[in-house]
């Protein structure tokens, strides 16, 4: 489990040593009325915030030792001025150690909180089976590293009498409220997917379940709560796909070296906003040929930014990286590429669901050397 501590650039770790050297040189060669103590104090505190305990102690020892050597050089080692100088320096070194211990304790607490959050997320959002009907399936949920809160991204795959149905959704907000909404959403999807003959009535069933649940929440949550969702239905016996867009980002179709946006039709209102009285948009039919992979994402993917603030574009960044060896390979490459793009912690959760349609006579199994579904 990755640590929640900030990942500083490597060169920042040298700043305390530079400040120590600068402060001691300043003390050694500047006039008596000009002291380098502020630089030494800053070095100690910075070391406590950035470095390990061992390195913080080393910085503190270097400061105390350096100041003691300067008092000997100046002839103040045995008088009140020298003693006060050493006491001030020792206090600064101890302050750096204290800062280090507070940050370490806080980091351990955040690690525990995050592990609990991830366990709860896995309980609410279990990994789908690797094969359902004509599809090979893979999914992954990646929590944002900038905070230890349970997110509201969700996905599900269900084999029904009407074909294999897929769901990917993003609940507004985080924490226990988002987990409750995800639980209601997935429960309603799994029940209604078996019974409703089309995606529009399936979405209506899910909408009603969410509205019933919202009766037990505050008025503010009812007004502001909503869920963007994309419902898909892999049509049996045909190389086609039916999609209903409830305000969610469109999926991508990966085939050989090509990755392109598969427009999911006009985006309708998100789920949970049915009280506005707006008619639901119509489903859209799109081709889903054998051997191709459908990639469903949440906005944690498309809103990932690089150092210059540019948004990540899966179609542009993944194109030319094929051929893909199944859904798990697509997800592995996508996650690695997003992490490369951001170059550090993400600010949003990221959920991805990928399904590959088998070719006639079966397709090769998904690449087994890739990371397990989480």
From TrEMBL:
Keywords tagged on the record: Hydrolase, Membrane, Transmembrane, Transmembrane helix
Domain (PPM-type phosphatase): residue spans on this chain: 135-357
**Can you provide one Gene Ontology molecular function annotated for this UniProt record?**
phosphatase activity
Is Transmembrane included in the keywords of this UniProt record? yes
Q: Which InterPro entries match?
A: Bact_Sigma-Reg, PPM-type-like_dom_sf, PPM-type_phosphatase-like_dom
Top-rank taxon: Bacteria
Q: Which parts of the chain span the membrane according to its record?
A: 41-68, 80-99
**Name by which UniProt lists this protein:** Serine/threonine-protein phosphatase
Species of the source: Streptomyces platensis
């Amino acid at each position: 489990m990755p640590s929640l501590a900030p990942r500083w650039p490597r060169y920042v770790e040298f700043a305390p040593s530079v400040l120590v050297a600068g402060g001691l040189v300043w003390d050694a060669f500047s006039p008596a009325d000009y002291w380098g103590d502020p630089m030494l104090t800053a070095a100690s505190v910075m070391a406590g915030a950035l470095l390990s305990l061992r390195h913080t102690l080393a910085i503190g020892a270097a400061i105390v030792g350096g100041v003691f050597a300067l008092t000997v050089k100046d002839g103040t080692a045995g008088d009140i001025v020298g003693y006060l100088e050493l006491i001030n320096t020792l206090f600064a070194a101890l302050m750096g150690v204290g800062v280090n211990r507070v940050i370490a304790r806080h980091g351990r607490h955040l690690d525990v909180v995050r592990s609990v959050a991830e366990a709860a997320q896995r309980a609410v959002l279990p990994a789908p089976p690797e094969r359902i009907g004509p599809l090979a399936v893979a999914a992954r949920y990646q929590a944002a590293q900038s905070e230890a809160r349970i997110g509201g991204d969700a996905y599900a795959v269900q084999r029904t009498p009407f074909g294999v149905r897929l769901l990917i959704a993003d609940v507004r907000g985080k924490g226990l409220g988002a987990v409750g909404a995800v639980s209601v959403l997935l429960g309603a999807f799994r029940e209604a997917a078996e019974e409703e003959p089309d995606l529009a009535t399936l979405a209506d069933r899910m909408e009603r379940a969410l509205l019933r649940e919202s009766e037990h929440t505050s008025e503010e949550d009812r007004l502001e709560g909503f869920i963007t969702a994309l419902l898909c239905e892999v049509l049996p016996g045909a190389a086609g796909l039916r999609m209903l867009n409830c305000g969610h980002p469109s999926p991508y179709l990966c085939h050989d070296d090509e990755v392109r946006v598969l427009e999911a039709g006009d985006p309708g209102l998100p789920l949970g906003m049915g009280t506005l009285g707006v008619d639901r948009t119509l489903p859209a039919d799109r081709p889903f040929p054998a051997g191709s992979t459908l990639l469903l994402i949440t906005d944690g993917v498309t809103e990932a930014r690089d150092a210059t603030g540019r948004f990540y574009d899966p179609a542009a960044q993944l194109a030319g990286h094929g051929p893909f060896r199944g859904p798990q390979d697509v997800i592995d490459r996508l996650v690695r590429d997003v992490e490369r793009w951001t170059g550090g912690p993400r600010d949003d959760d990221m959920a991805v669901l990928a399904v590959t349609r088998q070719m006639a006579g079966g397709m090769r199994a998904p690449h087994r050397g890739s990371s397990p579904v989480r």
